[in-house]
Structures are given as structure tokens and as C-alpha cells.
Amino acid sequence: MEDVLTIVIISDSTGETAINYIKSVTSQFPDLETRVIRKPDISSKAELDIIMDGLDKESVIVMTIANKDLALHLRARAKKENIIVLDILSYGINKFEELTGMKAIRQPGLTRTLSTGYFNMINAIEFAIKYDDGKDPRGFLDSDIVLVGVSRTSKTPTTMILATKNFKVSNLPLLPESEIPQELFEVDPDRVIGLVIDPDKLSNIRSQRTKTLGLMGESKYFDKERIKYELDYAMEVFKDLDCKVIDVTENTIEQTATEIIEYYFEKFPEEREEKS
């Protein structure tokens, strides 16, 4: 065998699974020099033939091909050329088919899809943290959804649930004494959701919150007249924004998130596949 072992990754997806597999194997041979060639996104037998025609006979093929016909074709060509093949994907699929009695769908690129979805979720969560509580109004214009409401209408927890479903969400607390950022009025109204709640329930929530923080005595924070004033103000803002309004009084956070998502896809049906 040559001093340098050529390893050819052939995949109908990115080949990342095979790359990681080879790294694990070759790490056990610290004195082995390797040259890794990656051939990703293979979709036809003709492409496989071109690769095989140019292959050094001392090479090792590591394949991750979900399509059964392509996998069989490559193994047949490799056998004819007397080239070693490590078919790590088909081995696992075949064993699981034997074990479960189920048939694999053998669809290329599913790992890439899962990875993309995962990283989209992480990005959405980071976005939610960065633009929570109106920290930076510039985030409104980059948001899929902007939640607006008075204090303790569950804006932040709802934001985080939506983020786990790949939505970029920012939120803004409304306070009559605070100026509303101009950026909010530049957002597509269909992307803005106003949250309202029964004043008595909000008073109880705020009262409990105050006690949890160890604060005692009367406070305008949970005063019912003050709360009614804040909610009336919020409704005026929602009217100016021309946005959807959701009453969260009887909702769990999950129910509110579901209602928002249903409304969102009514307005932006073309984004359903991207978020799924």
C-alpha cells in the first residue's frame, strides 16, 4: 500500500456522516497518512461511473448513499474494480429493516434537513434573547413576528416557544409613559400581534409577581384602575398598528403560541414549509 491512503467519500447528500465516521476510524491510526476526497450530491449512475473511471485502485471508498439502486450500482462497480467499499449507511439501514420489519424511505439529505432545522431553531432562540423586551427596536424589522402588550401578558415565554419552532420573534412591553419606537410602525401589520388579558386576572398575576419578589404593600403595578388604563392604552396602540389582537386570559402559553402560528400561516402560507 502507498504511504498515503486515499479515501473517497461518495454520497447522495453532503458526505458529512462519512467524514465524521472516517475521522473516528483514522484517529485510531496516528501514523497513517490519508488523503480524503469528497464527492457529494451524487444523483445518477453516470456520475458514479465517472468517479469510478478515474479512481486509483488502491483507494478506499466510503459511501453514504440512501438510494438503493445507486448504492447497488456503486458496490457492483467497486467489486469489478476490486476496490474496497465501506457502505456505512446501507449496513445500518438493512439491519434496522431486519430488526423492525419496516422499510426505510431511503431519501437522500435527511440528516442535512435535520441539521438545518436544528440550527435554524438555535438562531431563532438567540434572536429572541437579543430582541426580548424591546431591547433593540431594530430587531422588529427582522422579525417574523412581533409581540406587543402590557407587562405580564406572557410575551417573553410565548416568544421562546415560538423560537423553538423556528420563528424569529421580538417583543415590546407597552407602558403609557414610554414612547413607542418608530420601527414598530414600519413592520408589516400582519406580523404584529397584540396581546390582551382580563384586567382582574392581570391584577392577580401582577400581585403574585410582586409577592414573589418580596415586595409588600399597595402598588399601582397591580392596581385595577391603573391596569384598566394600561389596557385601554394598549388597545389604542393596536388600533394604530392595525394588528391582530389575541386575548390570552384563558390561554396557556402553548395555546397562545398555537393560535399565533395558525394566524401566521393564514397570512404567510408560503412560509409554512420553511418553518416546518
UniProtKB/TrEMBL annotation:
Keyword match Cytoplasm: no
Xref: Pfam families: Kinase-PPPase
Enzyme Commission number, as recorded: 2.7.11.32, 2.7.4.27
Reaction(s) the record says it catalyses: N(tele)-phospho-L-histidyl/O-phospho-L-threonyl-[pyruvate, phosphate dikinase] + phosphate + H(+) = N(tele)-phospho-L-histidyl/L-threonyl-[pyruvate, phosphate dikinase] + diphosphate; N(tele)-phospho-L-histidyl/L-threonyl-[pyruvate, phosphate dikinase] + ADP = N(tele)-phospho-L-histidyl/O-phospho-L-threonyl-[pyruvate, phosphate dikinase] + AMP + H(+)
GO molecular function: ADP binding; ATP binding; phosphotransferase activity, phosphate group as acceptor; protein serine/threonine kinase activity
Record-stated family: Belongs to the pyruvate, phosphate/water dikinase regulatory protein family. PDRP subfamily.
Protein's name in the database: Putative pyruvate, phosphate dikinase regulatory protein
Species the sequence originates in: Anaerococcus lactolyticus ATCC 51172
Lineage of source species: Bacteria, Bacillati, Bacillota, Tissierellia, Tissierellales
